[in-house]
User: Fold CREG1 protein from Atlantisia rogersi.
Amino acid sequence: MAGLLLLCTAALLLSLPGGAIPPPEEAARMARFVLHSCEWGALATLSAQDGLRGRPFANIFSISDGPPGPNRGSGVPYLYLTDMEISVQDLEINANASLTVSLAQTPYCKKHRYDPQNPLCAHIIFCGSIVKVNDSEAGLAKKALFSRHPEMETWPKDHNWFFAKFNITNIWVLDYFGGLKIVTPEEYYSVKP
Assistant:
């Protein structure tokens, strides 16, 4: 019976886009894993809008760090944006932002019956800035985003969509009890997801 339970748990873990979930002591790998397992995140900006100027403003954005599958993520959160979007207008004034991604959007937390606020339902908070990608990186961003969000290819061309990335400066990991873990960008990009 214990063997069957172990086999079922392994099958559940391997069903995530990023493969098996890393152990809590590997915070940098956990951050890479959670980002690659998620297809959207909450992006918080400082509002430039009348009535909200200077206040925090969060909005949902589709993201991707690469095509689905284990070991396919770059760790770079890519976005497909238009200047018509309210949060992008905020970013034009102040490019600083934070991005939160959570395993709550995957089957993992639901199958374990973890509430999204439970630390075992891991979430990652990235701080940094949003920057347009250069021409040499645009192909990578397009492949990453359109492989997970094929509908994007059909969005209205007159909206002047562009590829951007989240330039990570700080990373906080909450994946276990006992508080946040700090991961440097160097640690984050140096681990294999």
Summary: The longest strand covers residues 162-174. The helical segments are 2-14, 27-37, 86-93, 107-112, 135-148, 185-190. The CA atoms of residues 72 and 137 lie 16 Å apart. Residues 1-15 have pLDDT under 50 and may be disordered.
